[in-house]
Amino acid sequence: MTHTRVLIIGSGPSGLTAAIYTARAQLNPIVIEGEPSSTTDQPGGQLMLTTEIENFPGFPEAITGPELMANMRAQAARFGADLRVTKVQKLDTTVRPFRAWLTDDVEPSITADTVILATGARSLMMGIPGEERLLSHGLSTCATCDGFFFRGQDIAVVGGGDSAMEEALFLTRFASSVTVVHRRDTLRASKIMQERAFANEKIRFAWNSQPVEVLGDDRVSGMRLRDTLTGEERTLDVTGIFVAIGHVPNTSLVTNDVELEEGGYVRTGPGSYTSIDGLFAAGDVQDHVYRQAITSAGSGCIAAIDAERWLEAQGL
Amino acid sequence: MSENITTLTDATFNEVIGASDKPVLVDFWAEWCGPCKMIAPILEELAVEQADKFAIAKLDVDVNVATATQYSVMSIPTLLLFKNGEVVARLVGAKPKGALLQEITASL
Known about the structure:
The structure holds two protein chains of two kinds. Chain A is α/β, with parallel strands linked by helices.
């Protein structure tokens, strides 16, 4: 069993920024990075599934998500953060120091004076028939991973936010047409992304359309859509479907103990303080409003400083 | 790039897979794929640790479209395990080392 003053769970922009700050403050943080996955909890977080990041300050020519995360990781490692590619199975915040299990053992693997929860969020799925069966067989949650395989095909993106527009625009590099399927008649996406999408000749819109079934035997052949105004159903013939309908926070480690907000996000404030003394939260696990790489990194910095001052005040 | 992992191309694929006396695990990947980067270090480790059980090779789908299409790869990373030239296992998506090894070993 190892004891640490700061245990950081998650390795997206918030987790790694917290790691850089606490490592530089000589707190020797342990960072549990997560495990390789194409969907959730992966080391590097959601940016590992993106391409160009154009709005992270300091990179005027843009940088790719995986590159940015590799840089942040190297920076945390340089200051001595103990980075581990594994998952926290269980966390106990009812006793002090907190206890974390990385295995199924009875004994905890790590005890920690403070925990910075930076577990992020994962993509929501549609929860309709055919979806699970055809995942990776034409249905995808990662345009940058899979878009390449849809050269010259007609495909669809489900969703109306920035992520959906980003995916749709990216996919026009390969596909002959991209239909944005959205259940309302206006987009949630930012103005700049909307304008880019409307200006792109390959992008079409299926407004007021609710997906009800993914069609196809061993690969996607189409999607059943229900008109949200008339209730009428129709089939959209597409060979690829990319789902970008939003996110849910990864709170399973703390659900029973910490105060959550509506929507299941961890309630924070002031700063990164949660309802549990010594437990701090940063990044998308506590933010359903801004959800940017830069705000996430900023909140990781806040959590690091909060944790450092809390430890000082406790004499730990 | 590790010397323990063979780089395949459309031109060399059949020859290398056909000539192998051990099962071969082929990693279909691309430079722009984040999850592919996540499993790359795991494959490097397995190439050494499991060298007596199976060989590992990789194919960049970006420049070797024909082979990727032939094997219906639609999502990367995809790992295909070849035994006597036939596909005996298909693993799609990044996974932890233990899970990957377990699925590979089950099909050896």
